[in-house]
Amino acid sequence: MQSLEKGEAVVPVSRQIILYGDLNWHGFQRAQKLLHARFETQGFADIELRLDVGNAYPNGVIPLVLLLESYRQQGREIGVVLPEAERLVRLFASNDWIRHLDPRLVGTSGVRLASALHSFGSDEELNELINREIDAVLGRVTFAEGVAQAFEWTLNEIAGNVLVHSGVGAGLMQVVAMPQTHHLAIVVADRGTGIPETIRRAYPDYPNDEAAIEHALQKGVTSRPDFGQGKGLTGALEIVKENNRGRFEIHSGKGYVGWVDGRFAIKSDFPPFPGTVVDVQLDTAHAIDVSRALWGHQPVSFTETLYGAGMPEGVMRLSLRQEAASFGNRITAARIRTKIENLLSSEPGSVLEIDFSGVDLIASSFADEIFGKLAIKMGVIRFSRRLRFLNLNNFCHSVTDDVVQARMAQHVGKTA
Ligand SMILES: Nc1ncnc2c1ncn2[C@@H]1O[C@H](COP(=O)(O)OP(=O)(O)OP(=O)(O)O)[C@@H](O)[C@H]1O
Ligand SMILES: [Mg+2]
Prior knowledge:
Layout: E1 16-19, E2 22-23, H1 25-41, E3 46-51, E4 55-56, H2 58-73, E5 77-81, H3 86-94, H4 98-101, H5 103-106, E6 118-120, H6 123-138, H7 147-165, E7 171-178, E8 183-190, H8 195-202, H9 209-216, H10 232-242, E9 247-260, E10 263-283, H11 290-293, H12 302-305, E11 315-319, H13 320-323, H14 330-346, E12 351-355, H15 364-378, H16 380-386, E13 387-390, H17 394-415
Parallel strand pairs: 1-3, 2-4, 3-5, 11-12, 12-13
Antiparallel strand pairs: 6-7, 7-8, 8-10, 9-10
Helix pairs in contact: 1-2, 6-7, 7-10, 8-9, 14-15, 15-16, 15-17
Magnesium ion (MG) is lined by residues 157, 160-161, 228, 232.
């Protein structure tokens, strides 16, 4: 695809950009430079961007989505050609990256997959999104003590900052859980004013962008004292520091500040990022003392808002009907068991009520995967102390009883 004008005697320059390598932050920067060259230096009005990438990650795709949005808003046309490998096609689809990269490829109506890329533009939208993401990861990852609360707090603060500070009131967010490696990643980004710029409004002494970002990470530093207390970024950083293999990285304007492998990395970014990208990674297997990280503050957590609403102190309730459409397979059941374990470990002093209303039938394998395995893991005394069963019909009652008894008998047999 060449762009030679009639009679032009120069070496042809393609209007096609091919991006090789991995689409991570560095891959994004390569794309950013190439797009800049084609649009600004070579003067094209439309470009085809071919993603011949080996792999792709949220910290590369999300800033690229924002950059493409900016160019399109300026009237530039960019067609994206997706990678061809089957594995990558699935990756781009399951993360819902395709419609964000090029709405013409699939239309704009969202599929609202959990753990996919989402945009948000209001606090209601953000709250709903965060609740859904928390609910989804609770069923996928087993959290060490405090990590689920830390994750919820961090996500709220970083995404909340976009609404309050970016100047554009909208952003993108993606949560990625990797149960095998015990990683949970949060990427939040906007194409707004950027941290250095907002900080300079209140603290004009910070001429370079990385120094301004560093300043924003101090406790009590806020550009909007009418609104905030300057605790969000620093609290998120403290949480990451408490968390063994945690990482925290910010790219904004010409600045980069990261907490990686237990130390700060600070440098300038080129090209500058026209907005803010915050990338946080938590190690879900490593406990976090949230109250110590947050200076003695114990945040209200999902255990109260999602599972304790309207309940007396010390009681949470999980409705099975809301967790699944059918009660027959072990995969669904394992997800519910993981969630129950996370709820119990997040609130060690609370009781969890399992509400069977609306559940007429339950398969033995399903009941075994949840309650049989929980009884073994917890031991019969803790199991009966911490779980309460509500609204079971006779059938569900006897199936649940049977599987728990069978597991206990098997266990006793093994240990005898
Ligand atoms: N997405 C963003 N865009 C632009 N500036 C930002 C963004 N996020 C943070 N900032 C800047 O960094 C400063 C510090 O953020 P931080 O979250 O620590 O405190 P705050 O939001 O001001 O107060 P609090 O979080 O206690 O409500 C903000 O005051 C703002 O100037
Ligand atoms: Mg904040």
